[in-house]
Amino acid sequence: MIQPGDKVPDILGVDENGNTVRLSDFKGKKVALYFYPKDMTSGCTAQACNLRDNYAELLDAGYQVVGVSVDPAASHVRFREKNSLPFPLITDTDHKLVEQFGVWAEKKLYGRTYMGTLRTTFIIDPDGTVERVIGPKEVKTKEHAAQILGK
Predict the structure, then answer these.
(1) How far does Cα 126 stand from its chain's mean position?
(2) Distance between CA atoms of 50 and 42, rounded to whole angstroms?
(3) Which among 68, 85, 93, 114 has the fewest CB atoms less than 10 Å away?
(4) Which tens digit of pLDDT belongs to each residue from 90-104?
(5) Of 72, 82, 81, 67, residue with least CA distance to 31
(6) Is 83 exposed, middle or buried, given 0-12, 13-18 or 19+ CB atoms closer than 10 A?
């Protein structure tokens, strides 16, 4: 897993509209790069909507929010539209980013084992260095903006 102090590559991936998302697109801002398991699920929707509802405060504090999941672009488009999300969602169908950041792992649910995304947020400073990681056991979906802001 990428740790605090590690540099992040400039190119993060491609968003739901086919646009390349780069850290350099957000010059002078910290980036809250949050990985989530799946569009349209209750926890992921709660997390995205909390970030949406507090988006102005995050921007005012110098943060840009970027979401990442392995869902395809069409799913991201529906998820953004349904929830009026103001930030980009990277589609990582080839699992390149989730593997690079170390958040693609074995999970268990109801006795079933499968590979999936660990809900994790990386706070990246304006120079492209990971400043802080909010790990899978720490993320509070309904209070995530406050966690990013350090409240």
Answers:
(1) 17
(2) 12
(3) 114
(4) 999 999 999 999 999
(5) 67
(6) middle
- Evaluate whether residue 55 is within a structural domain: yes
Take residue 97 and report the two structure tokens written for it: 């980013």
Q: What's the pLDDT tens digit per position in 48-84? A: 999 999 999 999 999 999 999 999 999 999 999 999 9
Quote the CA–CA distance of 123 and 33 in Å, as a whole number. Answer: 6
Count Cβ neighbours within 10 Å for each residue of 24-61 and write b for 16 or more, e otherwise.
Answer: eebeebbbbbbbbbebeeeebbebbbbbbebbeebeee
Helix (H) or strand (E) holding 90: strand 89-91
Task: Return the active site residues.
Answer: 44
Strands 63-69 and 89-91: what pairing? parallel
For the chain, the maximum distance between any two Cα atoms, rounded to a whole number of angstroms, is: 45
150: left (phi over 0), alpha (psi -120 to 50) or beta: left
Q: How far is CA 42 from the centre of its chain?
A: 16
Domain count, the chain: 1
